């Protein structure tokens, strides 16, 4: 039985890999891609999503809905210094391609309402669209089956500031609202999961490069800029928080340990904007999220190798691939 899902994304680098998981994993039924302001310029994120659909041979099969082009109350902050253009310089002729006219927030509300309790959402960018949907439709929270959020750190280090992980830092008000809304939330945190368990070192990158499919070549290109950045800041490999979130939703057997936490997000701190405060049950606070604490790192890598080993024919010629 497949899992109906939507991926809410700010498509760059590992977001592209997460889309490949949603598009090509036999257990996934990807109903839509919704776009939120995050990693790179909004229009570039849209083009990166079309590019990813093309390399998967699925162009025209999954709708892309543009959503909120800025955070709720703050100016947009990019991660272009980390990801470059988010697609490793790859391009294709996409002048005739346009996203859906239905706004992402409305698409999320509609898709959840069509099959109440069945739709899963993997939110791998700032949580602006999710927060807006919860405000616009009081039934949205109840209609969503499962919400997987890639964001925050489990009382650990950030990646855009000492305390803040990027997705929560960009729109902390949205993140705070989502955790207060009553969703069945599962959190895939930057620290410790990505930082310590979902880094692909050179040996693993060589294994992927040797696969020799359009998908593995695509992986190498879209991850190249981030690999260079990661090495400059002391991380010995590429980081894969977004594809991890999608993979864990589809394959819960990859989760080795999780816990129930009360999660809240700092919006007012001068030094701690976007900090995820995760209370582990000793502070008298009611748990509102499941936080994944440990994964099967080898199993996750093997899963991605399986996805990237699929023989696809790109829907359109991709320049640079």
CATH class: Alpha Beta
Summarize the main sheet.
9 strands, mixed
Examine the secondary-structure arrangement and name the CATH architecture. Alpha-Beta Complex
Mean pLDDT level: 96
Helix/strand structural class: alpha/beta
Distance between the termini: 34 Å
| Order of strands, widest sheet | 3-2-1-5-6-7-12-10-11
Q: Could you say which overall geometry the principal axes of the C-alpha atoms support? A: globular
Q: Into which percent range does the helicity of residues fall?
A: 25-40%
CATH fold descriptor:
Inosine-uridine Nucleoside N-ribohydrolase, Chain A
Q: How many distinct beta strands? A: 13
Low-pLDDT segments, ≥5 res? none
* C-alpha Rg (nearest Å): 18 Å
Number of helices: 13
Number of domains in the coordinates? Answer: 1
Question: What string, H for helix and E for strand, traces the elements in order?
Answer: EHEHEHEHEHHEHHEHEHHEHEEEHE
Question: Could you please describe the fold and organization of this structure?
Answer:
The structure is a single chain. With 321 residues, the protein is α/β, with parallel strands linked by helices. It has one domain (3-319): Inosine-uridine Nucleoside N-ribohydrolase, Chain A (Alpha-Beta Complex). The chain contains 13 helices and 13 strands. It has helices at 14-24, 42-55, 80-83, 104-114, 128-136, 140-143, 166-170, 172-179, 190-197, 202-209, 214-232, 241-250, 297-308; strands spanning 3-9, 28-35, 64-66, 91-92, 119-123, 144-150, 185-188, 199-200, 238-239, 255-265, 276-279, 289-295, 318-319. A nine-stranded mixed beta sheet has the order 3-2-1-5-6-7-12-10-11, sandwiched between helices. Strand 2 (28-35), helix 2 (42-55) and strand 3 form a beta-alpha-beta unit. Helix 1 packs parallel to helix 12 and helix 5 (128-136) crosses helix 8 (172-179). The longest helix is centred in the C-terminal third of the chain and has 19 residues, at 214-232. The model has no long low-confidence stretch (mean pLDDT 96).
């Amino acid at each position: 039985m497949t899992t109906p899902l939507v991926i809410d994304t700010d498509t760059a680098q590992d977001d592209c890999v997460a889309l490949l998981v949603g598009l090509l994993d036999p257990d996934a039924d990807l109903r839509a891609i919704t776009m939120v302001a995050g990693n790179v310029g909004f229009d570039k994120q849209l083009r990166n999503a079309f590019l990813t659909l093309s390399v998967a041979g699925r162009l025209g099969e999954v709708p892309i809905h543009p959503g909120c082009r800025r955070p709720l109350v703050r100016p947009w902050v990019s991660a272009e210094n980390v990801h470059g253009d988010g697609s490793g310089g790859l391009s294709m002729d996409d002048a005739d391609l346009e996203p859906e006219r239905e706004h992402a927030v409305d698409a999320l509300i509609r898709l959840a309402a069509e099959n109440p309790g069945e739709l899963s959402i993997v939110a791998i960018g700032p949580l602006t669209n999710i927060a807006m949907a919860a405000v616009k439709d009081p039934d949205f929270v109840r209609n969503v089956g499962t919400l997987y959020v890639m964001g925050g750190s489990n009382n650990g280090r950030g990646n855009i500031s000492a305390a803040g992980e990027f997705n929560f830092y960009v729109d902390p008000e949205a993140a705070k609202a989502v955790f207060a809304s009553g969703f069945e939330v599962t959190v895939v945190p930057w620290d410790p999961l990505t930082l310590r368990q979902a880094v692909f070192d050179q040996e693993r990158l060589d294994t992927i490069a040797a696969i020799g499919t359009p998908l593995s070549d695509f992986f190498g290109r879209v991850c190249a800029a981030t690999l260079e950045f990661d090495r400059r800041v002391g991380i010995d490999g590429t980081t894969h928080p977004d594809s991890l979130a999608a993979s864990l939703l589809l394959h819960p057997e990859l989760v080795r340990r999780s816990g129930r936490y009360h999660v809240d997000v700092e919006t007012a701190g001068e030094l701690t904007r976007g900090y995820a405060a995760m209370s582990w049950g000793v502070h008298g606070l009611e748990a509102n999220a499941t936080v994944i604490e440990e994964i099967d790192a080898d199993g996750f890598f093997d899963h991605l190798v399986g996805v990237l080993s699929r023989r696809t024919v790109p829907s359109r010629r991709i320049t640079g691939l």
